[in-house]
Amino acid sequence: MTPTLARRHLDGGSWKELPKVKLQRKNRLRALSLGAVAVSGALALTACGSDDTGKSNGGGSSASASNNSAIKCDDAKGQLQASGSSAQKNAIDAWVAQFKAACSSVQINYNPTGSGAGITAFTQGQTAFAGSDSPLKPEEATAAKKACGGNAAIDLPMVGGPIAIGYNLDGVDNLTLDASTLAKIFDGKITTWNDKAIAKLNPDAKLPSTKIQAFHRSDESGTTDNFTKYLKAVAPSDWKYSGGKAWQAKGGQSAQGSSGLAQQVKQVPGAISYFELSYAADGINTVDLKTDAATPVKATVENATKAIATAKVAGTGNDLALSLNYKPTEEGAYPLTLVTYEIVCEKGNKADTLAATKSFLTYIASEDGQKLLTDAKYAPIPDEIITKVRSTISSLS
Amino acid sequence: MDISTQNAEAPPPTPQPSAAVLKSASRGATRPGDRIFLGLSRGSGIFLLAIMAAIAAFLTYRAALAISKDHGNFLTTFEWNTSLEPATFGIAVLAFGTVVSALIAMVLAVPVAVGIALFITHYAPRRLGGTIAYVIDLLAAVPSIVYGLWGALVLVPHMDGLFGWLDHYFGWTGIFEWQGGAPRSMLTVGILLAIMILPIITNVSREVFRQVPQMHEEAALALGATRWEVIRMSVLPFGRSGVISASMLGLGRALGETMAVATVLSPTFDINASLLDPGGGTFAQNIASKFSEATPLGQDALIASGLVLFVITLLVNGAARVIINRRKEYSGANA
């Protein structure tokens, strides 16, 4: 609409046609030169950008180039459509890059639409597998049977990850909190950083009287779900809300997506929020969690794997849905974690994608595949569980 | 008029041939080419209506499904929990936020847009006017997510000063009270939306002002009017209905803006009298935020909220039409 308006304006059509034509030509010249400057600027910018990514990717791919032996293409070919959780997007991207290099006959498209939309697409038979940051609910499992020809759809835990609590507080580089204090902060019960409860956990820190700005996700998200599940499991008397992907507590501020939250923490003094560890880059400090162990636990990939190792398999048969242990007593186990699952049909997978699905899942569950996760700040699934996942994948049909 | 006088003056030599001519003319309409074209155009008209009806029926059906499962009151509940048992959700907060943010945007954008349009058409040297018009056109071409990113990364961090000032001098009104949170509130969104709708309103207003008959302006000048009086007496009355239509176009964009609002706003499911503290969300923002993780019921609930936005937009457009029709006598269209 605007271009036509602009053209009409330039063409004029009213009185005094001549001078206008001249003006128009000059304007166009000026516009062109402006455009040229803008384009060259953009080119320079993208050039810088691609340089950066080139470097960081270069390190990763050269290190893992030898891993390709773990990928067995067999007779897999064609297109593999998948969609779902955006929390595991970076992991899938890394895997797909490796897989593509080894099996050029298979094309994998993972669309990070979000877990809910991913499960819907899987149920409607549009995708070969779905990614989800929580296992199938009973009603979802019933619906998913349709896509599997009456057979069950199963959850395969594949990617773990610590949820970090990031904060922005000048002069405080180490902060320890426990679930009950976190619950009170995010529920608006603790409003300043020098509150007694925080001071008690951090006797050595110089806490300012800054107001606490607690940020939560404005969109529905598995990260919110897992974070609130943790609060509810460990501090039920301080967190009265039911879990769920939508934020339940009143008050506080919100932002879109994990990147939006990380952005706010970076910008706003006194801010605190939760996001996957990979977003806690660029100098965002993360909280150490006080667990039942003697020393507070840092949010790291290794510590998350230690905590996931204490999880129990809650699914039946080949369904490997996990029930996470939020109160580990082991030293160095970081309990605030998120596990994403790949959801496939136990039997009755589509014939034309079965080979490719099995081949790809076998790779990502393999030792080499899981090793790749640490580079992307995800946590590998502990040995005991991933062994079960591997045997389940080999029996898919 | 010409035709009627011709007919009246044409001497009817013999009445019968003319009837025959008429007959053959009407028979001409039934020639195959005409018939096919008639069928095609009628068909596409009906097809369009059928598609619209099908979409409306589908949306209404899904919306009705959601509302029937709503544990709260769909119109008054201050909550949006679709994945819980029982699901409780309502559009009160969304309707409030949508209308308030769009109103702020209109209040800020319309005067500025009219000013720019007047400057371009009546004050600026031609060369400068052309450049400004070009830059305004550029503003309209920026994708809304870019506005959103700019808003979140540049505008929001720079709003602290304005918010502090408003709170200090106008905090007593309650509307401009600020608790000191991140300035990601209705006012910030309104300002961002104002920038986004500025080009639409400016462009349309400019075209309207450009079409003011030269005679009107010269007549006013001849009566000894100053430039401002010329604008007040001839340009503004002539352009009034056009400016209203332009504002409605802008309002439509402000009501439906999605990504920019979702990136900048800190939505909460309660209503706050203060425009500076978090409170409220908008329909489009809520749909964009919740859709990706929504359960089937959640999707239906979002569709229902979309229908409400549709109804609000219809009402606003209807109101604008009524205003324009009532003002028609002032416009130059029939002068």
At a glance:
The complex is a heterodimer of chains A (397) and B (335). Chain A is α/β, with parallel strands linked by helices and 397 residues long. In chain A, 43% of the residues lie in helices and 16% in strands.
Uncertain stretches of 5 or more adjacent residues of chain B: 1-12, 331-335
- Element pattern of chain B in H and E: HHHEEHHHHHHHHHH
**Strand line-up across the major sheet of chain B:** 1-2
Low-confidence stretches of chain A: 1-26, 28-67
Q: Which structural class fits the helix and strand makeup of chain A?
A: alpha/beta
Radius of gyration of chain B: 27 Å
Quick one: how many beta strands of chain A? Answer: 13
What share of residues are in beta strands of chain A? 15-25%
Q: Round the mean pLDDT of chain B to the nearest integer and report it.
A: 85
Strand tally of chain B:
2
The CATH class label of the largest domain in chain B is: Mainly Alpha
Query: Helix/strand-derived class of chain B?
Result: mainly alpha
Q: Element order, helices and strands of chain A?
A: HHEHEHEHEEHHEHEHEEEHEEEHHH
Give the biggest sheet of chain B: 2 strands, antiparallel
Tally of helical segments of chain B: 13
Task: Note the beta-strand portion of chain B.
Answer: under 5%
The biggest sheet of chain A amounts to: 9 strands, mixed
Give an account of the 3D structure.
The complex is a heterodimer of chains A (397) and B (335). With 397 residues, chain A is α/β, with parallel strands linked by helices. In chain A, the strands form 3 sheets. In chain A, strands 1, 2, 3, 4, 6, 7, 8, 9 and 13 form a 9-stranded mixed sheet that branches. A two-stranded parallel sheet of chain A has the order 5-10. In chain A, helix 6 crosses helix 8. The longest helix of chain A is centred in the N-terminal third of the chain and has 48 residues. Chain A is elongated and about 65 Å long. The N terminus of chain A is likely disordered. Chain B starts with a helix and ends in a 9-residue tail after the last helix. Chain B is built from 13 helices and 2 strands; from the N terminus they run αααββαααααααααα. Chain B is flat. Chain B has 335 residues and is an all-alpha fold. Chain B has a two-stranded antiparallel sheet with strand order 1-2. Chain B folds into 2 domains: 57 residues; 251 residues, MetI-like fold (Orthogonal Bundle), CATH 1.10.3720. The N terminus and C terminus of chain B are likely disordered. In chain B, helix 4 runs antiparallel to helix 5 and helix 12 packs antiparallel against helix 13.
